[in-house]
Amino acid sequence: MVAQNVAFWIIAIAMVLSAIGVVRTSNVVHAALYLVIVLAGAAAQYILLAAEFVAWVQVLIYIGAVVILFLFGIMLTRSPMGDLDLDNSQRMPAFVASLALVGTLTALLVDAFGNSKVVIDAPTKTSVLSSDIFRLYIVPFEAVSILLLAALVGAIVLARRD
Amino acid sequence: MMLGAGDPLLSGKIDLTVVLIVIGKTVAVFAFLLVAVMLYIWFMRKVIADMASRVGPDTAGPWGILQSLADGIKLFFKEQSVPDSADRRVFFLAPYISLMTAFLAFSIIPIGGQVSIAGHQTYLQLADLPIGILFLLAMSGLGLYGVMLAGWSSGSKYPLLGSVRASAQMLSYEAAFGLAIVGVLVQAGTLSTRAIVDKQAWTGVGSLGTWYVIPAFVAFVIFLISAIAETNHPPFDLVEAEQELVGGFHTEYTGIRFAIFYLAEFMNLITMSAIAVTLFLGGPAGPSLGFLSATGAVNTWLMPVFWFVAKVMVLLFGTVWLRASLPRLRYDQLMDLGWKWLIELAFIWVMVSGVIIVGRNEGWNLIAVVPLSLLGGLGILGVLRASMPNRSELVEEIL
């Protein structure tokens, strides 16, 4: 378990540093690349928890699709590229808001789990995961799907000029 | 524990020998891929030359077989220029992303059967992940970064245009590519490449019918088309359309960095052929030599590898043939094919084979279920095609 703890801290520190990089860098593409490191770190933490399926889905969806679309958006639109001064006057409010978010999440996690230990005997099998999603949680799953579909259609409606 | 859930090598105690075996396998697979790329480039140039009644490379080594090696050495000693407007760190990073993902994707391919090295049982395969196919899809998704960042970081227009075009193409075909794989997965019921290969194991000529190319023929065709489009090879090589884009996303790259892109591209092609063999053509399955001992070195080591390489070579010859004979698609044709045909067909195929599999498990009358589900699939396809606006209407609308 010691090795897992060491690995956790190494990955966690790398994630925090890159997360700071995301908001500190003035280059939008670099920010997206820092975000990739944060997301990859999350995937690595999942692997430490023996949740291999979730880890690779994280890589596939977030790194392989979401950030790619960010980059696509940055390249295709006339967004500022290069080292421009992107700061604005919202520095302080943003700092307070993110601090509040960190506080809330930490309080929630400590309240929910505290010192309890999660024992992992073996990696979760993908078939168990899929039958959970498609039997037990089918209604929330479908609800989320419809929400995403609505967002998709909405985006097309907004983007179409005619 | 996790990385090699299926590999007997990693299920016991991990000692120095095991680590050495894993390192040895990694080096061997990397060397195998490098040599394969070198030979493939030579083979491609030679075959295309034959098809065009030319001689092709014939100076370096016997039959010019060392031509790619000579080219590689030449590129290695060339100057590596970096444009002034380039984003230097990203510019240096991009080729290695391409190479890394291309190599990692190959690590899940079962090259041979189970063998014994230094007293340890192991698979002739670098890593047998329980979610191997997912790993493959993740790697082909990450491969996009190499292309995208290379074009963007070059800091000039043609590479940027080339990389946007390339990534749009790869993103579009990734959908059809993934769905074609799902067409096999619903039949195999597993995500591990080793388990998929085991389901197609050779037990006689009859086991040809268990190779997924037969029960999942539609998925096989979709897979081949979208795999070639994914790797940007002719007739889908719009990414390198010289007369439109100068050289595509790697226009600004020179020397060894350019060579790395080139290498990654052909590695991807070989990996795709290897995956097609793994998923649809039984991987290393094939008849062994009956007159030799079934447990001897030839039948456990050599024959599975031989069958694997032979099948991959047939597919690779197919890619050369396509390159020599087909003209490049137009961009709108490319998008039409991907979005309006392949994705639809793949979706319908997954639905139809899903119905058939459920029918088989539930004991429905297959003589009724199979034609009905096929008819239903064709019906959906017809409705979808009929509801699409045709080109002249679209043009009118835009004008």
Automatic annotation (TrEMBL), chain B:
Q: Which GO terms describe its biological process?
A: aerobic respiration
Listed A to Z, the keywords are: Membrane, Transmembrane, Transmembrane helix
Whether Membrane counts among this entry's keywords is: yes
Under which name does UniProt file this protein? Unannotated protein
Pfam families named among the record's database cross-references? NADHdh (PF00146)
Q: Which GO terms describe its cellular component?
A: membrane
Which parts of the chain span the membrane according to its record?
20-43, 90-111, 131-152, 173-197, 209-229, 259-281, 301-321, 341-358, 364-384
How does the protein associate with the membrane?
Multi-pass membrane protein
Cell location? Membrane
InterPro entries recorded:
NADH_UbQ_OxRdtase_su1/FPO, NADH_UbQ_OxRdtase_su1_CS
Name a GO molecular-function annotation.
NADH dehydrogenase activity
Recorded source organism is freshwater metagenome
